Amino acid sequence: MIPQPLPSPASASAAPPHRRRARLVGAALAALLPASAVLAPQPAAAAPWRPFASSSPYNVPIGARPEVDPGSAAMVARAAREDQAYAGLYEFGIPIYTADASTPRVDVTCTMEGAWGDCPLSGQKMPVPAGAVPQLGSDGAMVVIDSTDHTIGEYWQAERTGSGWRASFGAVNSLKGSGWGGSSTGSGASRLGGVVRVSEIAAGDIDHALVVQSDNVCARVYRAPAIKTDGTSYRTDCLTEGARLQLDPSIDLDGVVGLTRGERTVAEALQTYGAYVIDQGGAPLSVSFQRAADATATSPGAVYTSAGFAWDYYGMPHVPWDRLRVLA
User: Fold this and answer.
1) Using CA atoms, how far apart are residues 50 and 294, in angstroms rounded to an integer?
2) If residue 202 lies in a helix (H) or strand (E), which one and from where to where?
3) How confident is the model at residue 123 (pLDDT cuts 50, 70, 90)?
4) How far apart are CA 265 and CA 286, in angstroms?
5) Which of 89, 116, 250, 326 has minimal Cβ neighbours within 10 Å of its Cβ?
6) How many CB atoms lie within 10 A of CB 119?
7) Position 182 confidence tier, pLDDT thresholds 50, 70, 90
8) CA separation for the pair 269, 254 (Å, rounded)
9) What residues have CB less than 8 Å from 198, skipping those under 6 apart?
10) How many whole angstroms from its chain centre is CA 61?
11) Is the pTM of this model over 0.90?
């Protein structure tokens, strides 16, 4: 999606073409999920690495008695109207690469340089692995973690050129910072922040807040930790960028019928850490995931598939999305 002409840049994170036909096919495929996808005892695994400072909004659990937004019920009813939240696993999956001292440094041209100030990606050599492939969807997102200086190069609408790379815009953030700042997303959230990573689904443990997109994001207003918005909605039930959603922690997930291992992992994180609204999208609700190295147009990859995410834009229908709440 092309950014709106707002005071600050907006990376519109699109969402699935959730057609009725696709949903019917998805329901049929659900019956064919491998037995390993069904919730069952799993061997213990080490908790995956977590970026950003311990004080980052992503890394601080929600307290025991958080204040709920007065408009929560209406906002959730609109966002959860399809009883699904679509997992962006392939087309809009976020490619995350790691660079070290041996990674080639390249020139990056920002085609929207000056539109919202100086582009942080230009004017310096940026590390980009030789085989890097940006997100396939319209956002063309890409994340490169530079292990030499603990920064993150975050690209919006990136593509390789003959002599280097170009992007519409982007950001450079610190792995030791808050995870908010710059212009790689509509809200100013780091493009790495809150993304569900393959290693986390493999381990069955997400120890940070998630990030979501919605087609009903408020125009012109936002709340901390967001620093801007790309929302276009003037409905009274719109979601404000920066708003934190939480799955009702009183829900006993052991009693949720059909919950897959992957859905369980996501639901536990939503109860403990919640999810921040960071972008305008094309579906009522969608969740950002890392694109797996073995993902294809017909499979999101072995780890996701074995956890129950059988296809791109899997809607995680067993999670009780109507039991979300918007925190004040």
Assistant:
1) 22
2) helix 198-203
3) confident
4) 16
5) 250
6) 25
7) confident
8) 15
9) 290, 292, 293, 301, 303, 304
10) 18
11) no
**Cα 55 to the center of its chain, rounded Å:** 20
The CA–CA distances, whole Å, from 180 to 8, 92, 152 equal 14, 21, 12
Q: Return the sign of the alpha-carbon dihedral for residues 195, 271, 236, 313.
A: positive
**What is the model's pLDDT at position 183?**
87
Amino acid at 49: W
Tell me if 240 sits within 8 A of 218, measured CB to CB.
yes
Q: Which residue type does 299 have?
A: S
User: DSSP letter string over 255-298?
Assistant: GSTT-BHHHHHHHHHHHHT-EEEEEE-SSS-EEEBBPPTT-BTT
How many Cα atoms occupy the beta-carbon half-sphere of 244 within 13 Å? 25
Of 164 and 267, the structure prediction assigns the larger pLDDT to 267
Strand order in the sheet with 286-288: 86-88, 286-288, 210-214, 275-280, 244-247, 324-326
> What is the amino acid identity at position 64?
A
H helical segments located in 33-131: 72-79
Cβ(71)–Cβ(236) below 8 Å:
yes
Residues whose CB falls within 8 Å of the CB of residue 166, separated by 6 or more in sequence, listed in order: 108, 109, 110, 111, 158, 159
Report yes or no: 52 and 177 within 8 Å, Cβ to Cβ. yes
Amino acid at residue number 75: M
Residues 6+ apart with CB under 8 A from 34: 305, 306
Please list, in sequence order, all residues whose beta carbon lies within 8 angstroms of the beta carbon of residue 35, skipping any fewer than 6 positions away. none
Q: What are phi and psi of 281, to 5 degrees?
A: -135, -170
